[in-house]
Amino acid sequence: MNPTAKRDLDLSMHVIEGRDVAASLGPRPLAIIGARDGDAIGFATVAWATPVSHTPPMVAFALRSKSHTFGLVSKTRRFTISVPDAQMDDAAETVRACGNKTGNTVDKSELVDWRLLPAAQSSAREPLPAIEGALTVFECRVDHLDPAGDHMLVIGYVDRAWSRAGSDDRGRIDATDALLCVQHDVFTTAK
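The structure corresponding to this sequence follows.
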């Protein structure tokens, strides 16, 4: 085969844009960001969450800057990440309620089951909200915020984490029950 031909893009491929770009990188775990400032509680579904460091444990996600939940995160510099368990009876509805409605006009804390995390023994800060029945929950603090197109990239440290997920035969966490996003409003699991 001609080496030059190997470098040419298959022009039979079609152009994709917008949400289709993100969907082409799926499926990926859904996560619900939780934040609190006094009585104001916010939740937002994201499909753009990822670990960025093992030591120290750090995560990143993206939210729209006008989002109610982003406002709480940027003000308090604290947040939770709840990874929905696909086995939860209302997992898809919880994800939709936190992702398809805006906290600027709807109190999402009235739409979903949630609990406050146990207070840290060394912290006088108010406890943060997390989704009830989540497979995994992280309690985090913001390292930095950066503009990223029409979203804001939030990078944070994981201060505490809990999981109900089992372990595989090598002792590593088995997160195959996490709810995955194929594309907007289309969900699956790894099983």
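The mean pLDDT is 85.
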